[in-house]
Amino acid sequence: xxxxxxxxxxxxxxxxxxxxxxxxxxxxxxxxxxxxxxxxxxxxxxxxxxxxxxxxxxxxxxxxxxxxxxxxxxxxxxxxxxxxxxxxxxxxxxxxxxxxxxxxxxxxxxxxxxxxxxxxxxxxxxxxxxxxxxxxxxxxxxxxxxxxxxxxxxxxxxxxxxxxxxxxxxxxxxxxxxxxxxxxxxxxxxxxxxxxxxxxxxxxxxxxxxxxxxxxxxxxxxxxxxxxxxxxxxxxxxxxxxxxxxxxxxxxxxxxxxxxxxxxxxxxxxxxxxxxxxxxxxxxxxxxxxxxxxxxxxxxxxxxxxxxxxxxxxxxxxxxxxxxxxxxxxxxxxxxxxxxxxxxxxxxxxxxxxxxxxxxxxxxxxxxxxxxxxxxxxxxxxxxxxxxxxxxxxxxxxxxxxxxxxxxxxxxxxxxxxxxxxxxxxxxx
Length: 429
Known about the structure:
Number of helices: 5
Largest sheet: 8 strands, mixed
Number of domains: 2
Number of strands: 26
Distance between the termini: 108 Å
């Protein structure tokens, strides 16, 4: 048995050694590559200005194509008057991928002093009225600047219009206004010109503005600066909700009262306050909001020293504000905000700490470029006053906004109980 098996094994080995060739074939796939696509946005712009049929002070760059670095000034109007009007048209060329388009911008104003005719009708010597006096609209339009049917995106004062895109506004590839992020159509229309490369496009956007003849001397010498920014974001593998225009607001801290150190008029148009008190009878309060102390809406609140509690201040965009401190809410009508926001902390034989500050502008949470906390502490004869200011402007605060944070108050045994000795304020320019 063993000898027989060995013989079989030897025979098998011999058969293998005797095989010298196989049928075979080879197919080769060479030089396989992956090449990234491209996405390049070109914005063609054209600005016009009508001053009773005469174009004056028009910047040389009133029309062109922008790709890359900021285009700079396309308007340089030095003598606008009631009755003047103008338009800016933006059209888009995208190479090579269908994309979601976004628009964002900002606006700032200056009073530039008050001359004698203006002084009779303008009682805000440091706040310009030009942007609030200009009637404007932003709408989808065609390449000739003709508005699309039912294509108005937003209208109102120029401040209102720019405020609507400050936090980023999605543009719809079919020219449908009012689309929420994620609901807008992509820009996907392919244009194959007779000369040059093909590109992708969609509706243009036109900004139209006019100073009504009913506007008077209150805008004399006022000026404004506005900026626009457009983003194309690939639509493939993207649901359209990512906002490339998320704004950033600069914050900084300092000593003293914010309104005196930072506001152009050194006065606030409205305020909210949480002050340390004893939850006493009528006339003594701990929570307040309003245009000023004399006309504020107030409420009582029992503080617990060293406890950290939340607060929020909200403006509804239509003249009403509310302030909530640890569940205690007060509300009041206030003048329209026109600039910076600030937190002021005040401590006398005590410490007041405001932290975890957050700012929401017109439904968009903004990134804070700077500190998000401020505190004051005192153990001596003088009260310490410190502040944190948000560098917002008129367009930022024209619509709804909300400030939230946490506050911690602690008082020492020798605190006298002064109504204004220990407090924190939210001030609105």
